[in-house]
Design brief:
By secondary structure, the protein is an all-alpha fold. About 70% of the residues lie in helices and about 0% in strands. It contains ten helices and no strands. The longest helix is centred in the N-terminal third of the chain and has 44 residues. It is globular, with a radius of gyration of 21 Å.
Length: about 290
């Protein structure tokens, strides 16, 4: 079998799926660190700025980063050994408990790792080999981190959304996902659409219905998939948000007055638009006998 034949064979695709699965597990493990530490680092930075303004020393325990300190058990502070940090496998082997103090390990860690791996395989299956696949993988991983961070803290870090926006414009200057004019106006209309809704809602009710991070996230999604996908993203995010919000109120008794972050729904809708946007629009038009 020649090299060209191997690349065109199903064996090559299964090789890509395996690589995507393994690498997705490793990325998911890293995303767990980002999801946990980035909000803490942001809050520590804000406290440090406040202490600087008040001419007070910043607390030493506030010094936290993505890489340092090394991973450790939150209960007993024992450093986690490398063989206890293998995605999913270590959790199963340890039966969801710390190897040292036997404290319970949240199942969310392997869930995020496995979810990242599965979504990575789906991206490779949908896009096939190429630079566009690498771009779609990067978007997917960023959206996973933003989804969980916003769900936990109602924060959408600029350190993720703004680079994601610029990366979309740069990538589409080479036409990886869409053309550059569509990406540019996708970023503009994405930001202005939610910005307008924010101010109309605030003028009418005197309340803030969403955060500025939502504007930036939709702008970033528009920069990647183009302005043509923005209506689909807004419709899907509203639909997903309504379904999940009603479900939380009915099934878990959540207070309907407690704000629900909109970022996760934008991220889910944006990923669906990235993966199957044209197919979804076609099915929608066919359903209503349009076009």
């Amino acid at each position: 079998m020649t090299v060209e034949q191997f690349y065109a064979s199903s064996h090559f695709m299964w090789y890509l799926y395996t690589c995507a699965l393994v690498f997705g597990l490793m990325v998911g493990s890293f995303l767990n660190v980002v999801i946990l530490r980035l909000p803490r680092s942001m809050e520590a930075s804000w406290r440090a700025q406040c202490c600087e303004l008040l001419e007070q020393p910043a607390p030493a325990e506030d010094k936290v980063g993505i890489v340092f300190p090394a991973s450790h058990c939150p209960s007993c502070k024992t450093p986690i050994k490398p063989w206890h940090n293998i995605p999913v496998i270590s959790y199963l082997f340890l039966r969801g408990k710390c190897a040292h103090c036997k404290a319970r390990i949240s199942p969310r860690y392997p869930i995020i790792e496995l979810s990242t791996a599965v979504l990575s395989v789906l991206v490779v299956a949908a896009w096939g080999p190429g630079m566009a696949t690498l771009a779609a993988l990067a978007i997917t991983w960023c959206l996973i981190a933003l989804t969980v961070i916003d769900f936990d803290t109602q924060l959408l870090p600029d350190s993720i959304t703004l680079p994601l926006l610029w990366a979309g414009l740069i990538a589409n200057s080479f036409g990886l996902i869409t053309d550059l004019p569509s990406a540019l106006w996708g970023a503009v209309f994405g930001y202005l659409s939610l910005w307008s809704v924010f101010w109309v809602f605030k003028i009418i009710t005197g309340k803030e219905g969403m955060g500025y991070g939502d504007f930036k996230l939709l702008a970033a999604l528009g920069a990647w998939v183009g302005w043509q996908m923005l209506p689909l993203i807004i419709i899907l995010s509203s639909l997903v948000g309504a379904i999940i919000g009603i479900g939380l109120v009915i099934l878990r008794g959540r207070d309907k007055n407690i704000p629900i972050p909109f970022g996760p729904y934008l991220a889910i809708a944006g990923w669906l638009a990235l993966m199957w946007g044209e197919q979804l629009i076609t099915r929608y038009l066919q359903f209503f006998n349009v076009g």
